[in-house]
Amino acid sequence: MKNFSETRIADFEVEINEASESNSRTKHSWLYNIKYLIVGVLFGIVFVKAEIISWFRIQEMFRFQSFHMYGVIGSAVFVGMISIWVIKKFNIKTIRGETITFQSKKFNKGQVFGGLLFGLGWAMTGACPGPLFAQIGTGALVVIVVLICAVAGTWVYGYLREKLPH
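Given the sequence above, the corresponding structure tokens read:
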């Protein structure tokens, strides 16, 4: 049986300190979590207005007919790169004052297979995990099937993780 404070993830060990362990188990009222709902709704509105959830935009991307989605994804990667650089350069800490550390991760063939499978599912359904809820919120109720399949796929991966190539 695994110790809760030590979990094996991919090729490196992650230790969970006792403080964060107790913080994750703290019970809060539903009002405490309202901020996440607000951010999620704003995130969904941005996705809708930017046409990121549009099945047609996603198909244009996979057919190399439009730069729109590549521009969105590329700008997100650029903002992420700058953010990580700023965090490392200025030793930015979390709101609770904890040091932010980045772990090196070894590349393996499972990442290639996973990426191909993810891309295939994205191309077939016109949806990736980010905008699923925004698509459902706009009335594309058939996307509920995609959401159920995404949750099922995550569960299957978690169940078979130890047997998969890492």
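Helices lie at 18-24, 34-49, 55-62, 68-89, 109-125, 132-137, 143-160. Try to locate this feature in the token string yourself.
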